[in-house]
UniProtKB/TrEMBL annotation:
Transmembrane segments: none annotated. Its main location: endoplasmic reticulum. It comes from Xyrichtys novacula (Pearly razorfish). It comes from the Eukaryota. This is Microsomal triglyceride transfer protein large subunit isoform X1.
Length: 731
């Protein structure tokens, strides 16, 4: 009932918190608009750091007072809060609270009580009266008759077995389990971890770590023994879940820092710990925690790391951690390592620079990257030069930089000529930011002529749309670079999601191979004669770079793998990820509280493989992505006598395969790329419920299901022509 008779803004305390309120007064009426975004309350809550995966909230609170002869004749108030998932705004919920007061009559009140101050007068009226704060206080919810965490786990464990991970029941059960874990004690969580079957235990580790409570982190640290190399699978699942954490805190980073300082049984885990610490630094800095003591310690560790060791694997580990951290202070380090004699260092440094905002690409950085591409100081591997070209073209290139790139086409190794040509054409076709300056440079006939733009080869770069909607736009890009002998040098697949002004790098799978020319008695390309035989795979998932996987390293390892190749893909990432995580308590002006919870869970399985047949002179690389996604939103208003709420959700199961077949029996060799998505279902659900303390309840449900037809994603026409030849010849 706070009221001002003059137009203007004031700060008021009420049950919603300490808020800025705007008054508009006209004759006989005052409109009071509470600017809810300004309200400060004891309720904190949390939300996902990524806007693309996050939840958008809109709120309004308007109260209209009608006045007559100095009395309030009537009051009408309406408050609304709507929450929607950014990636699919039809998954939304709305709370509307209306209040109305009407003056019924006027009568004399009690006589005034004399006194020195208000407190003394209140005591004289009734000694039992006590002062209470006007701002709503935090209340811990109680659950009567709810199952224990162990009972809940027993009901869900079948859905979390590996065989069920590609079905929507897996992420739905994962989200249910997280809700239970967040209310459980450390001992209850440990009981579940110790009783889970070996097959379902990795999924329990995903759920416990993703819960991000003090009890869940303490339970994981007690359960895992990092000195034991046999526990690699569970340890890595814990670390990846930390990397994907929706709202990590300093304690989680401190736990990883302590692990890195202690004895670790597996070198793979040692690398993963440091790489994931970089991801946590990035997320904490995004929330304004860059100056926290632990963050400062880890920043010092990873910034000084590359120069503190001579071991190649450790330098790569620190560079990957810095790539995850996205620290502006790391730009000079990446600039230095871009010119390294070790190809792996250069590739990591250049791909890391590509992730930074163009404003951080100083003249010094640009000069270095151009030196690498144009080989001004030394000879570089093709994939390093290709990575340098990507940095130049994505960092607001100048007219001169673009012109020099165009002039280089024709003087590069065979396949790189074709790759660069394809890259330029893709930027123009897809209208990427660099397209304007490229068009300008191409007006010069020396840069743009038939001789330069008619180079043949099998390497390519192509971008396209996966999905376009009002909520989110998803794009993909495929870059493939071959050696002159026809063996894959680098394959890079990216998937991006964009919503409003936010961008998310959803997936990157890069397969790299080198030193395989000796298998087919071919001559290596310039600068690649002394390279050790190697093939490996690197994945970046939801902006988090994961530890790379090696298929083989060294000639003897290659030969043993050649004769034991089953064609079965090697697993890169498998598990359950909490993508969307939003929780808050909305304090309504009426005094009631609405509890809002939005969670999105993803079950994912990414694998990749490489086969080489010397008999058929054919190689095949594959990247297989399987996933199931569930997003749920629940808004509940809980009173002593009644409970009302609404739950919205959607779910889908999908798979995406990327296969490259190369026949290198002749030149130019035949290359066929296929990128297929299968037909997949999408289901939407809406449930409204009300229940009384007497036990009576009402529930209504609605659902909508649809099938999205499968398709093969379009690539360039040359690829379609080649695929016909490849499959005609293999037939």
């Amino acid at each position: 009932m706070q009221l001002q008779f003059n137009t203007g803004k004031v700060i008021e305390n009420d049950v919603s918190g300490r808020c800025t309120v705007e008054y508009k007064a006209v004759k006989g009426q005052v409109t009071r608009t509470k600017i809810l975004e300004t309200c400060k309350t004891p309720e904190t809550g949390f939300t996902t750091h990524s806007q693309v995966l996050g939840v958008r909230k809109k709120s309004s609170s308007v109260t209209t007072f009608t006045l007559e002869d100095g009395f309030i004749r009537s009051v009408s108030a309406e408050e609304t809060h709507s929450l929607a998932v950014n990636a699919r705004r039809c998954a939304a919920a709305k709370v509307i609270s209306r209040q109305s007061l009407t003056l019924v009559g006027v009568e004399a009140g009690p006589l005034e009580v004399p006194g020195k101050d208000v407190a003394g007068v209140v005591q004289s009226v009734d000694p039992k009266l006590a002062a209470l704060g006007i701002i709503g206080e935090k209340v811990k919810s109680r659950c009567k008759g709810c199952p224990s965490l162990f009972e809940h786990w027993q009901a869900l464990q079948k859905q979390l077995e590996p065989a069920s991970l590609s079905k929507a029941t897996a992420p739905r059960s994962f989200l249910d389990l997280i809700q239970s874990i967040r209310k459980a004690s450390k001992d209850e969580i440990l009981k579940v971890l110790k009783s889970a079957r070996k097959t379902s235990l990795p999924q329990v580790v995903d759920a416990v770590t993703s819960s991000q409570t003090v009890a869940s982190l303490d339970a994981m640290l007690e359960f895992l023994n990092f000195t034991d190399a046999k526990g690699l699978v569970l340890q890595e699942r814990f670390l990846y879940a930390c990397g994907f954490a929706s709202h990590p805190n300093e304690k989680m980073l401190k736990a990883l820092l302590d692990i890195s300082k202690g004895k670790i049984g597996s070198t793979d885990i040692k690398e993963s710990v440091v790489i994931i610490m970089g991801a946590l630094v990035h997320k904490l800095c995004q929330k304004g925690g860059c100056s926290l003591p632990t963050v400062e310690q880890v920043k010092k560790l990873i910034l000084e790391g590359p120069d503190s060791t001579q071991a190649e694997s450790e330098v790569q580990m620190y560079l990957l951690a810095l790539k995850n951290s996205m620290l502006p202070e790391a730009v000079p380090i990446f600039t230095k390592y871009a010119e390294s004699e070790v190809g792996a260092y250069s590739t990591i440094a250049l791909t890391a620079l590509q992730r930074y905002d163009a404003s951080l690409m100083t003249e010094e950085v640009k000069q270095t990257v151009n030196r690498v591409y144009h080989q001004n100081r030394r000879i570089y591997e093709k994939n390093v030069r290709a990575a340098a070209a990507d940095v130049i073209l994505s960092s607001n290139p100048s007219y001169t930089e673009v012109k020099n790139l165009l002039l280089s086409i024709g003087n590069l190794p065979h396949e790189m000529n074709k790759y660069m040509l394809s890259k330029i054409q893709d930027i123009l076709r897809f209208q990427l930011p660099a397209s304007k300056v490229i068009k300008q440079a191409m007006k010069d006939m020396i840069s743009h002529n038939y001789d330069r733009f008619s180079k043949v080869g099998s390497s390519s770069a192509y971008s396209g749309f996966m999905a376009q909607s009002a909520d989110v736009t998803s794009t993909y890009s495929l870059d493939i670079l071959y050696s002159g002998s026809g063996i894959l040098r680098r394959s890079n697949m990216n998937i991006y999601g964009a919503s409003k002004d936010a961008m998310l790098h959803g997936l990157q799978v890069a397969i790299e191979a080198q030193g395989l020319e000796s298998l087919i008695a071919a001559t290596p390309d310039e600068g690649e004669g002394d390279l050790e035989s190697f093939a490996g795979m690197s994945a970046l998932l939801f902006d988090v770079q994961l530890r790379p996987v090696t298929f083989f390293k060294g000639y003897s390892d290659l030969m043993s793998k050649m004769f034991s190749m089953t064609g079965e893909p090697m697993n890169v990432v498998k598990g359950l990820i909490l993508l969307t995580d939003h929780s808050e308590v909305i304090q309504l002006q009426s005094g009631l509280k609405a509890s809002a919870e939005f969670q999105g869970g993803l079950a994912i399985d990414i694998s990749g493989g490489m086969e080489i047949s010397l008999w058929y002179r054919e190689s095949k690389t594959s990247v297989n992505n399987r996933g199931a996604l569930v997003v749920t939103g629940n808004v509940t208003v809980d009173m002593d006598f009644m409970r009302a709420g609404v739950e919205v959700s959607f779910e889908t199961e999908a798979s995406l395969d990327f296969i490259t077949t190369v026949q290198f029996s002749e030149y130019p060799f035949l290359v066929c790329m296929q990128m297929d998505k299968t037909t997949f279902p999408v289901s939407e659900y809406l449930t409204k419920y009300e229940s009384l303390s007497s036990g009576k309840s009402v529930e209504s449900r609605k659902s909508k299901k649809m099938l999205v037809p499968g398709s093969e994603f379009p690539l360039h026409q040359e690829n379609s022509n080649m695929c016909k030849k490849v499959f005609d010849s293999s037939w």
